[in-house]
UniProtKB/TrEMBL annotation, chain A:
InterPro entries: Yip1/4-like (IPR045231), Yip1_dom (IPR006977). The keyword Transit peptide does not apply. The lineage of its organism: Eukaryota, Sar, Alveolata, Dinophyceae, Suessiales. It is found in: Golgi apparatus membrane; Membrane. This is Protein YIPF.
UniProtKB/TrEMBL annotation, chain B:
Its main location: membrane. The keyword Transport does not apply. Keywords: Membrane, Transmembrane, Transmembrane helix. It comes from the Eukaryota. This is Golgi apparatus membrane protein TVP23 homolog. The keyword Transmembrane applies. The chain crosses the membrane at residues 12-28, 34-53, 96-117, 123-142. It is a multi-pass membrane protein. PANTHER family: GOLGI APPARATUS MEMBRANE PROTEIN TVP23. It is found in: Membrane. Belongs to the TVP23 family. It comes from Durusdinium trenchii.
């Protein structure tokens, strides 16, 4: 029996009350993914990551409140976190401490900011929020890379400030959109603090 | 052993990335201590392994797949997909898949425990991360297979009820 690659709802359909043993659930994208070739899977994920990175860099993120980051994935934040960790631990005396610190601040930090938003009764999905916060580190990673290349202190400050403003602008819009009116500031402040912490890490290394 | 498998290349990859992670970890932790490079390499290979198990080996070896769907109103839902035709699955494929998937998180839980007892908190961080990767895949596939079993039981029950009703109707 060939596996039928179409999506059927497992609920009652057609009025005959039949429950099928098929595990497919109606997918809004309508894509069947159980049979696709391996390269297609790889390319789909890579394209999704690239698209999100581009989305974070464009000012359009301000207007439509981060809709392009709706389909979350945590690969981007992982790659960005690794890149940032490598860059910051390259010239540090205690490389392992610097690296571990970057990792902890990025992941635990975004987790705490997200939990804070959830506790404020925000309509946020946990992983989606971590995804947005992680992807919006991208401008700061670029700033860290530029400041690594040119070791002049005031240039570093300028780069990091630009990166920080960019990152905060992109993610604050997303967060404030999903929070109740009277608690926007309470939800947005930790985001600002999160990026300040990362910017500070970049500056002191 | 691999001769009886339906997808030998997938079986090899299912285990290969894990073996690489383990070798790098043992080398970097016990033989030639180097924290940052070991962490980076282990993370990269653990991530590759996670992606491979989630997207490739689950699909090809046991016909299961799980992911997260974000609906238009922003709420998210976990989707578990399974191949209803259980008979077409190869027994070697299935045992290799499940065997490795069960052992892997247990192994990292052991390493984590050992490092906690040693107070080497920097290695604890790496162990936690790889354990999270391993545990997530195990949890996802376990839910997939229990979902599949539940659906199969429901289907059998409903078929049984229909048969009984049909027999009574025709009696």
């Amino acid at each position: 029996m060939a596996y039928e690659p179409t999506y059927q709802s497992p609920q009652f359909h057609g009025g005959d009350g039949m429950v099928t043993p098929s595990g497919s659930i109606e997918s809004q994208q309508g894509r069947c993914t159980l049979d696709e070739p391996v390269t297609e899977t790889i390319m789909r994920d890579l394209r999704s990551i690239g698209m999100k990175l581009k989305y974070v860099m464009l000012p359009r993120a301000r207007e439509d409140k981060g809709q392009g980051l709706r389909e979350w994935d945590l690969w981007g934040p992982l790659v960005l976190c690794l890149a940032l960790g490598i860059m910051l631990s390259m010239h540090a005396e205690q490389a392992s401490l610097a690296f571990g610190l970057v990792f902890i601040i990025v992941w635990v930090g975004s987790g705490i900011v997200t939990i804070n938003a959830l506790l404020l009764k925000g309509k946020i999905s946990f992983f989606q929020s971590v995804c947005v916060l992680g992807y919006c580190i991208f401008p700061l990673v670029i700033a860290a890379f530029c400041s690594l290349m040119l070791n002049v202190i005031w240039l570093k400050v300028i780069f990091v400030t630009i990166g920080f403003t960019w990152a905060t602008g992109a993610s604050v819009n997303f967060m404030s959109e999903l929070l109740p009116e009277d608690r926007k500031a309470l939800g947005v402040y930790p985001v600002w603090l999160f990026y300040v912490a990362i910017a500070w890490l970049i500056l002191i290394s | 052993m691999l001769q009886t498998a339906a997808h030998p290349a997938t079986c090899v990859f299912h285990a290969a990335f894990k073996i690489v992670v383990l070798l790098i970890y043992i080398y970097g932790r016990y033989i030639h201590s180097a924290y940052v490079s070991t962490f980076i390499l282990c993370t990269i290979f653990a991530a590759l392994d996670f992606w491979t198990v989630k997207n490739i080996s689950g699909r090809l070896l046991v016909g299961l797949r799980w992911w997260n769907l974000v609906k238009d109103d922003g709420s998210s839902e976990w989707v578990f997909e399974s191949n209803p035709d259980e008979g077409s699955l190869n027994a070697t494929d299935r045992s290799i898949f499940w065997g490795v998937t069960y052992v892997w998180p247990v192994l990292w839980a052991v390493f984590l425990f050992m490092n906690i007892l040693n107070f080497s908190l920097d290695w604890v961080l790496l162990n936690i991360m790889i354990f999270v990767f391993a545990g997530t895949n195990l949890a996802g596939y376990w839910k997939c297979s229990t979902d599949a079993k539940k659906r199969a039981t429901q289907w059998v029950q409903s078929e049984g009820m229909r048969a009984v009703a049909g027999a009574m109707g025709f009696a």
